[in-house]
Known about the structure:
The protein is mainly beta and about 1150 residues long. The strands form 14 sheets. It has a 22-stranded antiparallel β-barrel. The chain has a five-stranded mixed beta sheet with strand order 17-22-23-20-21. Strand 33 and strand 34 form a beta hairpin. Helix 11 (about 1000-1010) runs antiparallel to helix 13 (about 1035-1040). Residues about 1-85 and about 120-130 have low confidence and may be disordered.
Amino acid sequence: xxxxxxxxxxxxHSAAVHTAKLGVAFVKSECKKFACTDxxxxxxxxxxxxxxxxxxxxxxxxxxFEFCVAFGVTEKSVKFFxxxxxxxxxxxxxxxxxxxxxxxxxxYVMEGKNIVLTKESNIARxxxxxxxxxxxxxxxxxxxxxxxxxxxxxxxxxxxGTITDIDGNFTLEVPADAQLVISYIGYKKVIIPVxxxxxxxxxxxxxxxxxxxxxxxxxxxxxxxxxxxYSTQQLNGDELNKVKDANMINSLAGKSAGVxxxxxxxxxxxxxKVSIRGARSAFASGNNQPLYVIDGVPMLNITTxxxxxxxxxxxxxxxxxxxDGISNLNPDDIESMSILxxxxxxxxxxxxxxxxxxxxxxxxxxxxxxxxxFSSNLTVDHAISLPQFQxxxxxxxxxxxxxxxxxxxxxxDNVGNWFGNGITAINSLTFQTGNDKMQTYFSYANxxxxxxxxxxxxxxxxxxxxxxxxxxxxxxxxxxxxxxMTQTIRNTxxxxxxxxxxxxxxxxxxxxxxxxxxxxxxxxxxxxxxxxLQNWYTKNEDGSFSEWDQNPYWIKNRVTNKSxxxxxxxxxxxxxxxxxWLSIQARGNVDYVSDKFDNKMYASTAANIAGKNDETGxxxxxxxxxxxxxxxxxxxxxxxxxxxxxxxSINAALGTSIxxxxxxxxxxxxxxxxxxxxxxxxxxxxxxSSKGFINQTIDAKRTIQSLFGTAQVGWKDAxxxxxxxxxxxxxxxxxxxxxxxxFFYPSVGLTWIMSNSIKxxxxxxxxxxxxxxxxxxxxxxxxITNLADIIQCGGSIQTNDIEQRGDLKPEISTxxxxxxxxxxxxxxxxxDFTWYRTDTKNQLLKVANPAGSLYAFRYINAGKIRxxxxxxxxxxxxxxxxxxxxxxxxxxxxxxxxxxxLHKDYKSFRYxxxxxxxxxxxxxxxxxxxxxxxGNGFERDENGKIKLNETGNPIKVTGNxxxxxxxxxxxxxxxSNTFTYKGFTLYFLIDARxxxxxxxxxxxxxxxxxxxxxxxxxxxxxxxxxxGIQFKDVPNFYGTVGGRNGISEYYMYDATxxxxxxxxxxxxxxxxxxxxxxxxxxxxxxxxxxxxFFLYKDAPFDPDATLSVxxxxxxxxxxxxxxxxxxxxxxxxxx
Length: 1135
């Protein structure tokens, strides 16, 4: 039988009322009159047991509860036993309810904010008079129109009742003259006479006694959400899974203020760049990715992406991205996600928290229920934001470009034939069950995908098992979790660049020419070599193929790769409740990742990339093989204190942790040394000369040992002081002056809940002001303080040329933030505003030593980078009635980055190596910003007007020394809307990136080749107009500004774009219909779409796609894979 417990009325300070209502004689209390007491008797009588435990939970000093008569509690059943106290301050609702119902035979299920109670023993229902009975139906919602799941509807004076389903609906047979009692925890009871009516719509009003929300913060410590002194964002798993993605973190885009998600352009399963409150670290080979924490334990977030230069790929051609660590998770395992944006929120993670923290809470079993859920998601992916081509001008006499004469050309749609429709299918099965002692969770997910280039395939399997258990009257709680993942990605496309990128040859192919013959016959048999070789319309003078232009179908079929990843995570935690106010917790975790990769380049692939056999002079192909293993062991131990002293409350923790990570890797690459035998792809066939490449890492280890503590002191639930401290000792500080003392990371914050201190107008439900200060760090890279000579392939020695002076330190971010939160009109509208400033000093820079020094370079700590910004979130329910509800939310953020200082002797440095003939570079200069884009500009006079040469063409300023723009946006916006009508739900998310700049070297190349639509229109017009100047020699103009090393200033675009990011239309089938099936409890069918269209875009490509998830290669497109539009459906069964 399902029953419920709800608040009744305020304490009227009368002992008689207590006796009459609860059958409990008055006992001594803290109330100056006759107020309720925290101390209650523990009785064997089942009903009275529950009454008094609930009384202890919610009574405190102002309220008491009326227990549902279904338990049959009477005054005569009351007996007295010794008193028992239940502590409720700063505890999660689940912890309190575990204690409340211990040993009572009552179990509970938490459905979001709803609590459903189940009585295990059978209680006989009183007979309901059959005469004049009618069937009543209805829907129960809160004042905002949200369905209330598990609300109790009981015929007054009987035990005849029911509860609402997942949509808030109920059906009950009652006499026509009955009265319905509707109750639900945290809401005021409603009594409605039936009077023969058969349909009801009932809204329940929040009670002043509503439970406070408790959230998980750093290190898994639970605190009241209202008490937090910093900004966080809470998202539940359903919000992340509205439109699924193979990399679940991409689903976060546009949903949180201050968080920017940039998707890698490397196809299925690729990595993502996540930036929280801007970039803080300028280290060239580093990144600004946040720390990910799963159930309180940090996880490895390694990435293998390697678009190392604008030329493309590592070692001149190896493109490899098998995804980042966060992409390995099954999105259906996620219960909720908390984003700790500022240093104060993340301070307990010390040297790992400089870039923010994302806390992920996974699902577990549920007591008192068994549930099986199956969901299937299928999307069809289609390429969008493709280049535009002209169809009026054909190829030249030599056939290498499209600057030929005008004519009626056939559009063979070579690009459209190359890109197909990709398909991604994600199937997931979950099982949850449990009782009040043990709970079990199991899930399996399978992801299969085929990319828009059909050779790109993804297959991923996830298995998760979690068991939680309580012993010794809930004094001991154990939680064990294990998950396995295997993933295989075949033929990851080039993420960008020229080398081994099929899009170069595809897009550049002469207009009016048919690519089909080269698709069907991408290779031809060579009788001299007795093998198939590449077939393409253009070659070098020596008969080899250019690294800049190869047959795209050859690259697709004969430059293949495979990535295979295995991942295993296992964790266990034990929590011992020593007293009502003290608990001890220990946690351990093991995280293992294995990445295997091979890349095969067949004979006749461009010799400048795949090399030639020095003995034969023949291109025999290239083979790359790598095996990388990362292993992390983590453990922590905490003592947690939680107690109330009159008007004061203390929530504190003291602990220690150790985090050991170790990496081993071996990469073997024949590079331009080529192979002994053509097309034999084994390690033993690689020619190990100095032209080859071997890189091996053996036990690269990082150990971080830490002591930390936190304390939150509250006063009258209105004022909270938060203090944390952490000291880290990292092995990366070996051989430095800081090795012994480590680094100390403090934080302090203050929150004033004004609505709990001052009487405000009734339309203001909540108001809060907060401020905080904190310092966090960014640890040094492994091995940077212990450099050594390297033995290279072929036995040559690469002498270490970097000096180690023992003075290196971690980067330190010092942050302050102030914010305020408000809720209005019965919580229908809310505002959250934050201002912050973060200064990051001790930037790790590689600089040149003075001439004549023993070492050519050295690493230094210098400079300061500042990020200042605001975040604003507005939520509301503008419209709401019996059947319709509209919920909307807007988030906005603005961040301003500045390189305040670098070093007195080094005022600037460049990302990457010099010497590339590409009109793009990234410089970090004092007074500039991270993300500044440099390139070749127009030479201008003193008035800023473009200078022309004697032929009338613009003059180029070479050297990539002209500041052209900045890749970072001025503002980010997200606007989500949910419309609900009965069982239908329409949801859409529009997000916008405002400002910032991007460069398209793709467009520059296509213009130079004469294939672009713009070059065709200019020829039709007879000139190119730019900044008021008409350039009439169109081919020479594009020959000057276009190409990979032209005037890239011409190819800068506003990065502003507005898109329909997500769209879903779903229907939840009514429970009354599903009940006829006898086994289906829920059925949801949803149509889904992502990136449906752009409302505004200036750039010729998607500005939110990136060549790299690191610090380099930002704001530039060099033949990156196009963005996809995804349309499909999702079906979800609950059994």
